[in-house]
Amino acid sequence: MLTLLLLIPILGVFTISTGISYESSYLNVSRIKTIALTTSIVNLFLSIIIFVLFDFSTNQFQFVQEYHEISSFDFYLGLDGLSIYFVMLTTIITPIALLSNWNSIKDNVRSYVIIILLLETLLLAVFLVLDMLLFYIFFESILPPLFILIGLFGSSNKVRASFYLFLYTLFGSLFLLLSILAMSSIMGTTDFDALYKTNFNYSTQLFLFYGIFIAFAVKTPTIFLNTWLLKAHVESPLGGSIILAAIVLKLSLYGIFRLILPLLPKASLDYTYIIYLIGVITIIYASFSTLRTIDVKELIAYSSVSHAAVYLIGVFSNTIQGIEGGIALGLAHGFVSSGLFICAGGILYDRSGTRLISYYRGIAQIMPLFSILFFILSLGNCGVPLTLNFVGEFMSLYGVFERLPLLGVFASSSIIFSAAYTIYMFNRIAFGGSFSKFFEANITDINKREFFILFTLVVFTVILGIYPAPILDGLHYSVSSLIYNN
């Protein structure tokens, strides 16, 4: 089943690249899009079947498939109670990313959908492999497709943005590779199951921790390491922004559960206060930057940095609430930031050709349906009760308070800041006088496709916010064993 999850998008890529002629007629283009969308929806159904069959009462890896000795490492696939949620997030977001750019990309459509489907396979592979070296290989292999995606389909400053993304992340991940090679040479294996039974001595743990944490701090991203994210988000096409915010930023969160917490428990406990300090500074810095930005897409990208810092410190709290909250906030951020990017970079930008907040005014008068959905997603971004973001943020901050109350107080400022910049942005776009004098033509309200995408994301955010049990109950056993086994 897990091999199928990886193979279905590859089959879609194969069909698109070989089965359809290269004439750029309207029929061909629509056929390419339809095949890509169908492929991603089939994958979504398959992941739902796996989720239904999954046994949450054990912390063992399930659906394990072994393919021994491919050159120097074993090719293992498996799922546990932590990774299944990231797999579900990936298969939900991919069709949304394809649908969001349905009409706006007119050239090179074939290349675009092939890159998105390739990214789906590579991201799923990161969450499914049970071998540390393979984890690193797939972790890095996401860079070339993203580099091409931003470089080909981005906006004005796209080449610079794609190089920023590529070089920053590649440099950070070199430290991860060194740590993995060190573990491999000490233990003689890169298999997760075998490594979880080991106990490295304290000084080794410290050095491994430095290497792995630098790589994940770049991917999260934390303060001083976040310039690549803003460039990549602002210049990226809409589908790229969605995948980047919803899934690629979660790779570091997932990596912490796989590499740092189980393998380096002493180092992660001793260095918690430094991670908290970095997290709190990131939250405050990103929030102030968000308040002064005038580009709506950049504002959402900065808010991603702030939320990422909240789930980072939640995960290092060493409490069940903090870790579960970190994962819940990661999933919620995936839904809400995707929705906000569609609102800002898709609907508003496609209709008006500008991303400057000052150009929009009184959108609620002419786009009432859009304004309602935009408002609900903005509330989600603030972490208002009855949204999944609230559940995740509350539990993350609760975990921080249990561990270090003083820094917990500063971290809680994220609640006030996120409300300030999100509602300020919404207010300037939706209200603030009569509809802007800068536009000659009227702007139409959202169509069926856009309504369907936004409504789906709103439903996930609100229903899981009112009833988060499907996530929290499923995580409980895996998170408990993660803490108590160390």
Number of helices: 23
Helix content: over 70%
Number of strands: 2
Whole-angstrom Rg? 22 Å
Span between N and C termini?
31 Å
Task: Please identify the structural class as seen in this structure.
Answer: mainly alpha
H/E series: HHEEHHHHHHHHHHHHHHHHHHHHH
Subcellular location: Membrane; Mitochondrion membrane
Protein name: NADH-ubiquinone oxidoreductase chain 4
Catalytic activity: a ubiquinone + NADH + 5 H(+)(in) = a ubiquinol + NAD(+) + 4 H(+)(out)
Keywords: Electron transport, Membrane, Mitochondrion, NAD, Respiratory chain, Transmembrane, Transmembrane helix, Transport, Ubiquinone
List the helices and strands and how they pair.
Blueprint: H1 2-19, H2 26-53, E1 62-70, E2 73-79, H3 83-100, H4 109-128, H5 132-141, H6 143-153, H7 158-187, H8 192-195, H9 202-219, H10 227-235, H11 238-248, H12 250-260, H13 265-270, H14 272-292, H15 296-315, H16 320-352, H17 363-366, H18 368-382, H19 388-403, H20 405-411, H21 413-430, H22 448-466, H23 469-484
Antiparallel strand pairs: 1-2
Helix pairs in contact: 1-2, 1-4, 2-3, 2-4, 3-4, 3-11, 3-16, 4-5, 4-6, 5-7, 6-7, 7-9, 7-10, 9-12, 10-15, 11-16, 14-15, 14-21, 15-16, 15-19, 15-21, 16-18, 16-19, 16-22, 16-23, 18-21, 18-22, 19-20, 19-22
EC number: 7.1.1.2
Subcellular location: Membrane; Mitochondrion membrane
Membrane topology: Multi-pass membrane protein
